[in-house]
Amino acid sequence: MRLTAYLLSAATIAIASPVMAQNNSPEPSSPATQTTSPTAAGSVAQDEGDQGDIVITAQGRAQALADVPVAVSAITAETLQNSGASDIRQLNQLAPSLLVSSTGSEANGSARIRGIGTVGDNPGLESSVAVFIDGVYRSRSGIGLTELGEIDRVEVLRGPQGTLGGRNSSAGLISIISKAPSFQGFSGGAEATYGNYDFYRFAGNLNLPLSKTIAARVDGVYVKRDGFYRDYTNNTDVNNRNRYFVRGQLLFEPSSDIRFRLIGDYTHRDEKCCAATYVDRSVNEAVGNLNNPVASVNAGLAAGANGNNIVNVIRDLGQPLGLVTSPGYSRDVSVSAGRSFAGITKDWGVSGQLDWTIGTTKLTSITAYRDYDSDQGSDTDYSRVDILYRAANGNSARRFRTFTQELRLNGSLFADKLDWLVGGFFANEDLRVLDNLRFGSQYGRFATCRLVSGSALAQFYAPGSTGCLSATGRAVLSGGVPGVASPFGAAGPLIVNAIATLDGINDKGSTRDVYNQNSRNWALFTHNIFHVTDTVDLTLGARYTNERKKFDASFTNDNTGCTAIQSSLRSLLANPALAPTAAGIIGLACQGNNTAELNGVSINSRRKEDRFTGTAILSWKPIDDLLLYGSYSRGYKAGGFNLDRSALKQPVQTFAQLGGAQALANSLQFAPETVNSYEVGAKYGTGPFTLSAAAFIQDFSNFQLNTFNGTVFLVQNINGCSSSLNGGDRDQSKFPAASNYNAAATSSGVCPSGDIGYGVRAKGVELEASLVPARDFRVSLGLTVTDTKYRSQLVGSSSGAPLDQALRLLPGRTLSNSADIVATSSASWTPQLGGGYSALFYVDTRMTSDYNTGSDLFPQKAQDGYAIVNARIGLRMPDERISLEFWGQNLTNVDYAQVAFNSPFQEGAANAAFQDAQYPGGRQLFSQYLAEPRTYGATIRARF
Fold this sequence. Notes:
single chain; mainly beta; 22-stranded antiparallel beta barrel; 10 helices; globular
């Protein structure tokens, strides 16, 4: 169902009606909220029941939310608790400009703000949206998909960041501030939750003042839940929860001028993630007949107008047909016997924050070390046929070892006419990626059947025979039938032998490829607020970032079948009549550069870059309750390396022909992403009522795009071209009958260097409001309307090289996972029942218009709009010593996909019935990672 019209109506209501945000001020003990003025300190100390200002630190200083001239959402502890948020993914319900999703593993989580984000499947790409927890940068946003313990608040900053400290980011920032130790007496809390899917969650915290100057706090969480998917082949469930988290803190305050907070935390996850199902016609009408088998493979391509030969292949090799043709939103998944999604994640770290007031100057130092290790097995083809897999043996992993140091000085000068801030940031990050991707135990037969069923050889299709060829077929092709010439002539025996070799490529590939990347970056930054008059402020910020990355990789590979076939068929590539067949066989044997030619080979490369970025903001308060501002910001996200051997070259040529793997190492590099952002906004606040509005335009150059094309991951820097490309960015060489066919499509669409400009423009309007009409009643609503699109003429690099054909739908279209309209709302009512007892009634909603979940924008990956509703009711004893709550998430059990993608290697042969524009992937099958279904349960909570 389409929700666009409904959302437009909701937007009208949002503008016409006052809306609200929680008014829950942070504790004075939180170092992130330390202030330099008595007025600010008073605001920080507001009790959450009051209707005072919400205090945030989005500009490195404690300020009332309504006085901050930047687009920021502040989400309080009470709101997080009521919504059931335990990691950053649940923030979707509370921040309309934010979308957090996960794909092939929990480590692949991706956060987007204003429609801009980084696909998380390749750890070589840094996040467009940076995540900080207690001031400490987390290497990738997916690392935030874990339990967080008790949280004081979350701030979501929209637009490029970097002049206030920490790691720079191009799209925004999520800052999570945990509950700090307190000197206000011995206290603690505990809660227990039980829900459907046999969900258990136990959490507790203990605060202990050890002396007048030292306080300690411990938080812990344990979660266990059955998986949302069922794997009947291996009699297990997938996408389960089995994790625990512990955090210990010490707070040392020897005087009112010195404050030191030491934090240590550890997370352990032992879970199976992440399964996927096929996308069928009932989920997306654009699938059409893609998931139907042809009536007869042997009848040839001409008889396949109403079906897909690849469906016949996987069915004949053991795939249950019903899970392809009509799975709908079933959570029964296709997994090969013995394959597993199991994985273990360990994440720990230590940080120390020193806040030292020296006269009128405040020094802040944050020193941290993080150690993140996540391994994950997978049935990588997501079918019952064993085509691709990563064994759950610890050799499919990503490991981050990150040291960061941040220093800031801030204060005021010239009778408080200038609030200044200067600082520096240093980070040293060691990333190690292990990969053991291998062809499965049925790959050879799958590959030969794909080859035979999709070609003129289809009459000989025999999935039970060697090479998927019938005995007659082998004889004919080899020239062994008297009076019948082989269609391959004298090369017939050579080709038949190559097909037999391909048939034997089973359980071959990498055992332990190692990718190492060391990133060392340092930055100097400043952020200064000039109080030009009592009502006018000018903010100027600047940052210089210096980045150096070193890369090396070593490979292990036992696919000797690839090298044998390359050697035997190489001479045929020069024969125009035989080259397509030879290239097809070689491509299947060596797909993704899965070749023994790489065994024992090492490569290395390095890159260095630096950038100046900054911001300028002019703000004006015409009256005490109204703030108007306009701003310009330039943001930056570092370039890096595509950590994937498949990106080194196309599989048909050998590495030796191209000068060896080392000669190709620099081809793994991609350029830094930059953005110019313009914003105007207004904030109005009168105690119980606040309203903020922002309008923005953001232009991204060298936009880093990571796309899976069904075979390999592509990383391109998307830029625009001001001169016409004459359709060169929209043509293709796959479908001869299509209007955009161009035999030279791989080289068309080059842009002159002087005409290259930004490739993505994000523009839109954001509204957020809050209303607290009474102490026990709170309502909120937010609205984001965006138009985040690619330019109409696109190229794939900063030098103007052509856009990859797989991305030919991008020009002029909306980015993936960017809905035009998103509206969020929440309401909570806590009526007093007498005798100190109170009740809780809470509901929140996120309504999203239609969008496409695939970064190539294929229509089979489109997602209709939907609305997600969460609710909670409860009874609380006096002082909330004990409370009992009943809750539900996704109450209406809405089915939708987080991300849809090309089912790996599962593409049938191209024919006239399946081609552009409805079928840009030809007869490609599609899979999807489903969002969580309805969950419900009860929570009992106690505190003392």
